[in-house]
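Suppose a classmate hands you a notebook page containing two proteins, each written out with its sequence and a corresponding row of structure tokens. How would you begin to make sense of it? This section walks through that situation. The first entry is reproduced here exactly as it would appear on such a page.
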Amino acid sequence: MKKNTITLKHLVTKFTLVESRSSFIIGILFFAAVLILSGCKDDGDNTSPDVAKLIGTYAVEETDMYASVDNYTITISKSQAGGANIEISNFGDLLFVPIKGTIVGNKLTIPSQSFTASTTIEISGDGTLSGNNLHFDYTMESGGDLFEYSCEAVKQ
């Protein structure tokens, strides 16, 4: 059997051919990746199905810790953040910015959040959705005072 001797010139020629082919192969792979990625469609709305159950306008009957009752409406909409995130407008019939919250299953969560105007107000709470009825409790702290509220809301 004849032995092939590999010379330096032979190795350089082999590597040169591989490099020129590898550039072509890399180009083909890049082109294929661009085609594949451009074919992917954006799912767009990644909103949780639980949010769809909750969005709408609600007539609220709010009872404070002194048994005073107030009636007003709130609007719950899906958040730009998507997922289980929602926003509640006209919260407590006093805030001009939406409150952020989440809904998972039938459980509403209003995480602690602060708002500052002439004073700082901190709000947090939770609730439960049952059909078209939403029950939620929340606390509001302002100037060192803590206020508690219980709300019954009916979807309109």
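The notebook's second entry, a different protein, reads as follows.
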Amino acid sequence: MPAGNILLSASILFAGAIPGKTLRVLRLMGVIGIHPNTYFRHQDKYLHKTIRQVWEKCTISLINQLRGTELVLGGDGRSDSMGHCAKYGTYSLLELNANKIVCINTVQVNRVHYSFKIFR
């Protein structure tokens, strides 16, 4: 696989850009790029796994760094903006002294019990 293809897919994903529009702009500019199906294949096969591995490695490092210290934790949740019916909500847990995110979980809004799991 050409390195430029996976790098293009990664840059679109990491920038938070809309793949269809980004690839269309590149095509209109005459830049040879990839097909949107290729982007989604790269995302599923390589990019999401890599992001998860890096996240877990950083989280383990942070937990080891914080082990044995007094923790000051803060958390917050968000489900959706007013006027919409959200099915899922995102909850995050932050260590306030280190100013680092310790955990992020996505849960169904209609659940009564919430629990934070650092690793699945």
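A careful reader of the second entry would note: The first strand starts at residue 73 and ends at 78.
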